[in-house]
Amino acid sequence: MIRYTVHYTGQVQGVGFRYTTQNIAEGLPVSGYVQNLSDGRVRLVVEGEKEQVDRLLDGITQYLGRYIHQQAVDQSPANGEFGQPGAGGGICDVRKSSWLRDLWVVRK
């Protein structure tokens, strides 16, 4: 299992980034969240098998690449913070961040 923390810069807020990420993640055995940051970036933290996490990032690039100017990826071992990713993937929870912006939590 692997964990990616990805920061996206560009015109990534106000374009459906979190909603699209939610839709791409459905059906993938990944878990994590995507969050708007106060500085205009979007943060994605996701855990799962490397192949599945890479599929999520590829899907994000495919659907939202025109809005992304830079993607900074930090890779680390998964720590299980979001539980064990299930076979069905999908969204199970919506939370508020400390910035009072929605967090979409992607996990089974």
Describe the structure.
The chain has two helices and six strands. The protein is of the alpha+beta class and 108 residues long. It has one domain: Alpha-Beta Plaits (2-Layer Sandwich). β5 and β6 form a beta hairpin. α1 crosses α2. The longest helix has 15 residues. The radius of gyration is 12 Å and the shape is globular.
Q: Share of helix among residues?
A: 10-25%
Q: Residue-averaged pLDDT, rounded? A: 81
State the helix count: 2
Major sheet: size, sense and barrel closure?
Answer: 6 strands, antiparallel
How do the strands and helices of this protein lay out in sequence?
Layout (H helix, E strand, L loop, with lengths): L1 E9 L6 H9 L4 E7 L5 E7 L1 H15 L3 E10 L13 E6 L5 E5 L2
Antiparallel strand pairs: 1-3, 1-4, 2-3, 2-6, 5-6
Helix pairs in contact: 1-2
Concise description?
By secondary structure, this protein is of the alpha+beta class.
Describe the structure using short key phrases.
108 residues; Alpha-Beta Plaits; alpha+beta; six-stranded antiparallel beta sheet
